[in-house]
Amino acid sequence: MGITVIIVAATCLAIGGIASYLYFKYGLKSKVEEILKEANMEAEVIKKNKLLEVKEKFLNKKADLEKEVAIRNQKIQQAENKLKQHELIITQRQEEAQRKRKETDAIKQNLESQLAIVNDKKKELDSLQQKQRKELETISGLSAEEAKERLIESLQEVAKTEASSYINDIMDDAKLTANKEAKRIVIQSIQRVATETAIENTVTVFHIESDEIKGRIIGREGRNIRALEAATGIEIVVDDTPEAIVLSGFDPVRREIARLALHQLVTDGRIHPARIEEVVAKVRKQVEEEIIETGKRTTIDLGIHGIHPELIRIIGKMKYRSSYGQNLLQHARETANLCALMASELGLNPKKAKRAGLLHDIGKVPDEEPELPHAILGMKLAERYKEKADICNAIGAHHDEVEMTSLLAPIVQVCDAISGARPGARREIVEAYIKRLNDLEQLAMSYPGVTKSYAIQAGRELRVIVGADKISDIDTENLSNDIAKKIQDEMTYPGQVKITVIRETRAVCYAK
Question: Which class in CATH covers the domain with range 201-304?
Fold first, then answer.
């Protein structure tokens, strides 16, 4: 009995030990595996988070470095452009200095040789005078001083007699023709008060609030500024001048369009090539409407009626032209009022005189100017739009290009001199300068495939825009060479002219 109990107890103990061993072996193993699995999952999550953080920091660093590199490249490019400009200016000044030095040396040598010749001639003349004086003193029996005194006394008596007679004749003639002489003297007196004025400007300064806007105006790789120059035909100079951008061009209307467009773009903040073209087209239309409104307002203010609409447009366009430092529209209004005052004083029709004074400089306004002085061109425009013959003659004769046939003509001439005071020599220089720039643009436009041409930098550069569908890239080089050769053969100009041919390809499609 006791043995049986012991055996049963031993068996139970063995079975319990085996069961405990199996439980500890397989139960603990599954728990360990579960714990390891969770640890691995947490490690993977931590690893992914760390990788994302590292990647984000790397991208931020990369963006900062790229921005810094772009800023440095822009500064380097600006410095290179400035250096090139300085080199060009220094080269031009050196060439000018060498030329002036050569001219000065040649003039100095010429003057020295002429001075030697003059000294020799003077010595010969002195010896001849002494010889002749001695011969005259010997023949007359009088010394040179005695002969001089007798001659002076004789001339004084003759001069007094003739002067008294001449004064009496003048007084008698003045009494007979007092009214006519008074008009002539008044006109001649007014003509003598003209004084010189400064030459007109060819640049406009556009002020900005901060220099940060300059970078946006230039755009990436200069795309914005090139698009603005191509759309307006005005050179835009962005340099280190604080809070200012210079618009350079000889056509004031183009400069005004560029100024207004730039103002709208800077105010709006959206500056890119497509927006630039849209704004320039809108501003050009606004300027055209303002030109017509200005012409109408001017004629109404002066009380002048019945003027042809095209002449009204030309009058309005005077607002954007300058005449040797003076606004052309203001000059025309002032001349018109002066003409009316003078015509009233002289007993002539003041309304006709005012009309002629307002229209006398319309020949300066047309964009496409033929080979004619502005007075003749203005006369032809007035004849084309049915102005009366005496007004047309006053316009054409105010610079003596045609013969004066009415009293309106001298009145317009002297009133123009009072208001504008432009000497003939300076006028010819400026007109020749404007004509040369127009000739440059017209010469480029004569080639097939050219859509626009702009003369900038006072005629030192000609930018030619061609159609991409008409001219290939190879043809643009040939076109540039042909234009340069034609300018050399047919035109006279100082220094050199840079010809830049621009060919731009655009792909346009509409999503419907």
Answer: alpha beta
Please answer whether residues 381 and 363 qualify as being in contact, where contact means their C-beta atoms are separated by less than 8 angstroms. Answer: yes
Q: What letter represents residue 240's amino acid?
A: D
- Closest by Cα among 372, 374, 404 to 391: 404
Token duo for residue 474? 């190879």
How much is the pTM?
A: 0.46
Per the CATH hierarchy, to which homologous superfamily does domain 435-504 belong? Answer: Cation efflux protein, cytoplasmic domain (3.30.70.1350)
**Residue 57: how many other CB atoms lie within 10 Å:** 10
Q: Taking CA 445 as the corner, what is the angle to CA 469 and CA 311, rounded to the nearest 5 degrees?
A: 120
pLDDT at position 148 over 50: yes
Supply angle C-alpha 138, 141, 145, rounded to 5.
Answer: 95
pLDDT tops 60 at residue 39:
yes
Classify 227 as helix, strand or coil. Answer: helix
299-328 pLDDT tens trace? 888 888 888 888 888 888 888 777 665 678
Which CA distances in Å does 509 have to 80, 161, 504?
38, 97, 17
List the one residue out of 8, 374, 74 whose CA is nearest residue 220. Answer: 74
Distance from C-alpha of 216 to C-alpha of 212, rounded to nearest angstrom: 7
Domain boundaries, the chain: 33-141, 201-304, 435-504
Cα 454 to Cα 365: distance, rounded to the nearest angstrom: 18
- C-alpha dihedral (257, 262, 263, 266), degrees to nearest 10: 160
Helix (H) or strand (E) holding 500: strand 498-504
Q: Where are the beta strands (DSSP E) in 264-385?
A: 322-323, 326-327
pLDDT in tens, 80-125: 888 888 888 998 888 888 888 888 888 888 888 888 888 888 888 8
Count helices and strands (H / E) in the chain.
Answer: 15, 8
Q: Residue 200: CB partners within 8 Å, gap ≥ 6?
A: 322, 323, 324, 325, 430
Pairing of β 322-323 and β 235-237: unpaired
Average pLDDT of 235-252?
75
Residue 272 to residue 270: CA distance in whole angstroms: 7
